[in-house]
User: Which sequence fits this backbone?
């Protein structure tokens, strides 16, 4: 069975809960934090593992999302396809990624970020992919802007990082305006 592992390194559940809510609209998502298992949606399988720390990853296809203030650490991996999504506004997080051998997608408000936003109005954030990336499918995704639903209770970083994840999953090609 083909699947993609999503590893969220975070001390709380907000980012994981948001990812589960958004991804279960398009995928069959299983989420665990080591204490409970939640399954939602239908379609291609995504496993979400939320943890505060991980030392080794063995997977065919994996995306690691760092919580807003979490560190990458010294993760050993032999993943064939692996990306890390990180918060560019957290200097200690960016420093912890200096020895990371896989591609890093930075999210934030800086012009050098891979994913940022150009506007926030009412319930829509316009998310910008500022440089081309290769999705897990192998397809090249060119810079673009995507309108994404925004609930004021959600952090902008969570919206940007989950949108970056969806771009890596190639989850928007036919539904650009329906990303949320």
Assistant:
């Amino acid at each position: 069975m083909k699947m993609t592992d999503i590893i969220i390194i975070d001390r709380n559940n907000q980012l994981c809960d948001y990812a589960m809510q958004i991804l279960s609209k398009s995928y069959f998502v299983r989420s665990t934090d080591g204490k409970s298992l939640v399954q939602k949606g239908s379609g291609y399988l995504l496993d979400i593992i939320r943890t505060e720390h991980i030392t080794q990853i063995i997977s065919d296809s994996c995306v690691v999302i760092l919580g807003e203030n979490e560190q990458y650490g010294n993760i050993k991996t032999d993943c064939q396809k692996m990306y890390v999504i990180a918060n560019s506004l957290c200097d200690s997080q960016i420093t912890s990624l200096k020895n990371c051998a896989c591609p890093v997608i930075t999210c934030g408000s800086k012009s050098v970020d891979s994913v940022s936003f150009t506007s926030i109005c009412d319930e829509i954030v316009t998310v910008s992919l500022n440089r081309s990336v290769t999705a897990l499918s192998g397809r090249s995704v060119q810079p673009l802007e995507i309108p994404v639903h925004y609930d004021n209770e959600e952090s902008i970083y969570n919206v940007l990082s989950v949108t970056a994840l969806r771009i890596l999953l190639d989850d928007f090609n036919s539904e650009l305006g329906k990303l949320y």
About this structure: Residues 174-180 have pLDDT under 50 and may be disordered. The two ends are 27 Å apart (CA to CA). The first strand starts at residue 3 and ends at 9.
